[in-house]
Design goal:
There is one protein chain. This protein has about 240 residues and is mostly beta strands. The protein has a single domain, classed as Jelly Rolls. The chain contains no helices and 20 strands. Strands 1, 13, 14, 15, 16, 17, 18, 19 and 20 form a 9-stranded mixed beta sheet that branches. Strands 2-3-4-11-6-9-12 form a 7-stranded antiparallel beta sheet, with no helix packed on it. Strands 5-10-7-8 form a 4-stranded antiparallel beta sheet, with no helix packed on it. It is globular and about 45 Å long. It starts with a strand and ends with a strand. About 35% of the residues are buried.
């Protein structure tokens, strides 16, 4: 088993007033040649946007873009006919493919929104742009790694053009849980949204990250109540 640890306070930092963002990997004005991603996982941005503000229309192509609101509401609009609100408890994906133009605004004039935006490099280029949004309530079971993203349209959660699986879970203190990789050639990036866990003798606090590869599974011990996101991707 190989690991790489990224402390929360080691991330890139951007503060634009209306937007505060922490970048696990190189992004925009934050460039670290040793932090260019983890396998096919290219971006983890931890974003905070004040009420009534957001990202105006801008374009992407050939990227799988996943948004997960952690609190508040995220407004979305794009040029392929999707307009609406992504609420906390939902997950959204866009396959940018041949090109998509969209906006991401705070869906509320007063309440702040906090969300994760994650980019995964696809295994197919120039696909037709697509959009998907799913509520995770029926998927989520306590103290389990609940699959919320996969390569398969018929599976639970959303799907993307990549041999990748995301799982989320809310875990109680003193719980121990083991994750079995779907593909032993993949790696897993563990991102602690809140709480405290230990994985392979690595203690992870809120917003810490740990990449793991060259293993078929790993075990997580929960030290304090925790919310955890796992991102299994090709290396």
């Amino acid at each position: 088993m190989k690991t790489i640890y990224h402390a929360a306070d080691s991330r890139g930092d951007a503060n634009h007033g209306w937007l505060k963002s922490r970048h696990t990997f190189s992004f925009a004005n934050y460039h670290n040649p040793e932090r260019m991603g983890f396998g096919a996982l290219r971006v983890i941005n931890d974003d905070f946007v004040i009420g009534g503000q957001g990202f105006g229309k801008h374009s992407h192509r050939d990227m799988e873009i996943i948004s997960i609101p952690l609190s508040g509401k995220l407004g979305h609009g794009d040029n392929i006919g999707n307009n609406g609100i992504i609420e906390t408890g939902e997950i959204q994906v866009m396959s940018a493919g041949t090109g998509i133009t969209h906006s991401e605004m705070n869906g509320d004039d007063k309440e702040d929104v906090k969300f994760l935006q994650i980019w995964v490099i696809p295994n197919k280029m120039n696909v037709e742009p697509r959009y998907q949004q799913v509520r995770m309530d029926e998927i989520m079971q306590p103290n389990e790694f609940n699959q919320v993203l996969s390569p398969n349209a018929d599976d639970a959660g959303v799907w993307i053009h990549q041999n990748a699986w995301f799982s989320m879970g809310d875990f109680d203190k003193n719980v121990t849980q083991t994750y079995e990789l779907k593909d032993p050639n993949n790696g897993v990036y563990i991102f602690v949204i809140s709480g405290k866990v230990v994985v392979n003798d690595n203690t992870l606090n809120t917003r810490d990250g740990l990449g793991i590869w060259d293993t078929k599974n790993f075990t997580m011990d929960v030290i304090d109540d925790a919310k955890v996101l796992l991102m299994e991707v090709p290396m």
